[in-house]
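Input (structure):
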């Protein structure tokens, strides 16, 4: 039993880091992200919610204690002795940049304008529905050398 993203319900996995969240926050769209990852996403000029495909009207975030507690309780019930640690600012930025690059490459391959805001829904249609299950790419972070750290609990 481990923290591999495929082992967890998708609502407990950040769509940017593709890892179990350590510091989940709710953004203005009502969706939850790992704090440093959504901060990096916004710093890189992205203002679209990956799940809702709507504009994030501000950088306002509130801690999502329900998700944080759900992760801790699920880990405990499964006998998992490690807990995710928030990524560093640099790692969060690299994870967000990787996702932006993947989205742009996908748009180019589909013959879409990679910078056009009207293409958000086209990208989403090609990459899964909004149930979050297709948002998790298992093991991707490790292959790219972008694995998140964990701590013993």
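Output (sequence):
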């Amino acid at each position: 039993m481990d923290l591999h993203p495929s082992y967890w319900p998708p609502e407990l996995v950040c769509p940017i880091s593709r890892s179990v969240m350590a510091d989940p926050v709710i953004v203005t769209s009502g969706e939850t992200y790992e704090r440093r990852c959504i901060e990096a996403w916004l710093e890189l000029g992205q203002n679209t919610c990956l799940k809702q495909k709507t504009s994030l009207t501000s950088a306002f975030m509130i801690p999502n204690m329900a998700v944080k507690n759900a992760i801790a309780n699920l880990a405990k019930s499964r006998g998992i002795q490690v807990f995710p640690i928030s990524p560093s600012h640099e790692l969060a930025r690299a994870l967000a940049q990787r996702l932006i690059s993947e989205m742009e490459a996908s748009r180019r391959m589909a013959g879409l304008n990679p910078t056009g805001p009207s293409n958000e829904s086209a990208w989403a249609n090609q990459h899964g529905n909004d149930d979050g299950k297709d948002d998790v790419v298992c093991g991707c972070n490790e292959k790219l050398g972008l694995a998140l750290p964990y701590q013993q609990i």
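Notes: DSSP finds five helices and five strands in the chain. The radius of gyration is 15 Å.
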